[in-house]
Design goal:
About 50% of the residues lie in helices and about 10% in strands. The chain is built from 2 helices and 2 strands; from the N terminus they run βαβα. A two-stranded parallel ribbon has the order 1-2. It is flat.
Length: about 60
């Protein structure tokens, strides 16, 4: 079963570093705007749409 990750821009560098440390250099994940916790409904909708677009591309890449 495929697993996909979503990171906010604030944590993308840390996620890339962790992937390298764990032996997965180049691990691809979706990146959305930070922060999420203070986003209003429209901001959350925009982030969700951005994540879905990126995740679809990651899932279907060959």
């Amino acid at each position: 079963m495929p697993a996909l990750a979503v990171m906010t821009t604030r944590f993308a560098n840390a996620a890339e570093l962790m992937a390298r440390v764990l032996g997965f250099p180049g691990y691809a994940f979706a990146t959305i705007a930070h922060p999420v916790s203070s986003a209003d409904d429209e901001g959350l909708r925009e982030r969700a749409e951005a994540a879905v677009t990126q995740l679809r591309q990651l899932l279907l890449r060959a």
